[in-house]
Amino acid sequence: MFYIENCIRFLSPKTHSQREFWQAGAELIGEGGAEADGEIIALALECLERAGLGGAKVDLGSISVFRKTADQFKITNYEGLRRAISAKSMGDLREVVTDDRALEAFAYMMEGRGGPDVLKRVVEIGVQGIEEDIRYFGELFDVLKAYGYSSNVRIDLSTLREMRYYNGVVFEIFLEGVGLPIGGGGRYDVMMKEFGLGMGAVGFAVSVDLLVRAIEGLGGRKAQITPVYYLNGYRDKAIGLARRLRDKGVACIVSRYSGEKEGILVGGKVTDLRSGKVLEDEL
What we know:
The structure is a single chain. This protein is α+β, with helices and mostly antiparallel strands. It folds into two domains: 216 residues, BirA Bifunctional Protein, domain 2 (2-Layer Sandwich); 48 residues, Rossmann fold (3-Layer(aba) Sandwich). Helix content is 39%, strand content 23%. The chain is built from ten helices and twelve strands. The protein has an eight-stranded mixed beta sheet with strand order 1-2-8-7-6-3-5-4. Strands 10-9-11-12 form a four-stranded mixed beta sheet, with helices on one face. Helix 1 packs parallel to helix 7 and helix 3 packs antiparallel against helix 4. The protein starts with a strand and ends in an 11-residue tail after the last strand.
């Protein structure tokens, strides 16, 4: 399912963010595993490409690895630890973590970035029980490679979104020139159980406001319009041609011919007005 809607959230009076904002997102409900997660990440990147914003980068995090590491070192202040790691603040981290090995592990989570080998380094530091997470991320990168997006993603274990909402992979989407994540998402199977639904779910959302700002930063995405003109008696034929072109991604307008010098003219033949070339067979 997908949506493009205005959303409202509660914020304290001191918060400078918008309480009402536009958001576009998609949810894949009923599927689990790396295939579903990879599909939703690829969908997010493809949506941005179609909006004229190719080249987006995705940082992948793991609530599972975070929780397993915190539990191993008997740290119960999940939220304080999450804030410290997300902010990449060693000062805040030392207020929550005192064990030297734990400090080394979480400090690496703040700094280490790359492919699945990032998780192998976490094991070398001494974190146990994340073998399944290593296997999962290896598979996830394989899925994203099949979609053509493996070079757009990297593991960054400091990426930790709302823990009461997400329980598996989480991710944030970045565009060059935009200082904030333009969107993000992750897996939220646990939340589905709160609604009495024992099924997997993964999704993403992007900020429409930031999306518009990014497009404006590129000077706007102005589609090249192809005018389709028709002579008397050929309107239906022109509309049919315009529909075929639109299916191919060509933006068209259809109007009566009034002596224009550029565009496509539909009559007994279909002609390029500028060159005079007959296009019937090509279109």
